[in-house]
Amino acid sequence: MESGLVLNIQRYSIHDGPGIRTTVFLKGCPLTCWWCHNPESQCAQREVIVVETRCVGCGLCRKACPVEQLPAPAGDGVRAAPVACTLCGACVEACPTGAIQMAGAEMTTADVLAEVRKDRIFYDESGGGVTISGGEPLSQLAFVKELLAACRTEGIATAVDTCGYGNREQLLEIAELTDLFLFDLKLVDPQRHETYTGVTNEVIIENLRALGEVHKNIWVRIPVVPGINDSPADLDAAGELILQIKGVQQVNLLAYHDTAANKFERLGRPYRVSEVSAPTQQQMDSLAERMRTFGLNVKTGG
Question: Which of 103, 129, 150 is the last residue of a domain?
Answer without folding.
Answer: 103
